[in-house]
Here is the input.
Amino acid sequence: MEFDHFDARILAALQRDGRLSVVELAETIGLSPTPCARRIKALESSGVIEGYAAILNPTRIGLGVLAIVQVKLTEHTDETVARFEKEILLMDEVTKCFAMTGSYDFILEVYGKDLDALSSVVLKKLIRVPNVRDMQSSVVLATIKRTARIPLGHLQL
Here is the structure.
């Protein structure tokens, strides 16, 4: 999809505040509401905008522990990888899962209310997923930066 400066400005504004009304957004980017609404719809229809959500503070809702878990599988067949991915999609505690190059096959972001809850996820759920060969967990001591924003510097703002 080709982006012009209005599209880029819409994306930047919605990343800052997804609750902007079309009128507020149009005013912010210098467009009238009708063309602004059409552009938003086009960005949504094309899949550039995947959805809208509230960004929650994990500690304020009782999730006091975050771990980064690296997972290595026993083999890399299509069936093995698909089964692992299916199992991960069923675990609410796993909020992100990335297929990786390097020593480990996947890196997961896993939340728990405390160390016992986190330990339960790792030892009773993750380790029991078929074809998991090795795992390494690191507990996050402090979060320095946490954002859902995607960099838009390469687009014409």
Summary: The longest strand covers residues 65-73. The longest helix spans residues 33-45.
